[in-house]
Amino acid sequence: MSLGMACRCAPSPRAFLPFLYPSLFHGATHGGGSSLSRPFSAASSRRSNSSSPEASSEATITAPTDPADLPASRLNPPPDDFARSSFADKAKLTVYAGAGGHGCISFLREAYMEDGPANGGDGGHGGNIYIQAVHGETSLHKLTRRRFIRAGRGKHGQGGGRGGPRGEDVIITVPVGTILTELSREDPEAEGAVYSPSQRDRKRQPRARPQQDDDPDAEPPEDPNRYKWLLYPGVSSSEAARIELPEMPNRERLFTQPRAPMHLDLSRPTPRPILLAAGGIGGLGNPHFVSRERPRPLFATKGEFAMSMEIELELKLLADVGFVGLPNAGKSTLLRALSNSRARVGSWAFTTLQPNIGTVVLDNNKGRPAVKSFTRQPELSPYDENFNGSAASDAGPELKQRTRFTIADIPGLIEGAHLDKGLGIAFLRHVERAGVLAFVIDLGNGNAVQALKALWNEVGMYAQMREDEERDREVAARVDWSPKAGTDEEPQYTDDFWPATQAMADYPLSTPDPTGLHIAAKPWFVVATKGDLPNTQENFQELREYLASITRGDEPHPSNVEGAWTKDCMAIPVSAINGQGTDRILHWTVGLLDG
Ligand SMILES: Nc1nc2c(ncn2[C@@H]2O[C@H](COP(=O)(O)OP(=O)(O)OP(=O)(O)O)[C@@H](O)[C@H]2O)c(=O)[nH]1
Ligand SMILES: [Mg+2]
Question: Which segments show compositional bias classed as Acidic residues (predicted)?
Answer without folding.
Answer: 213-222
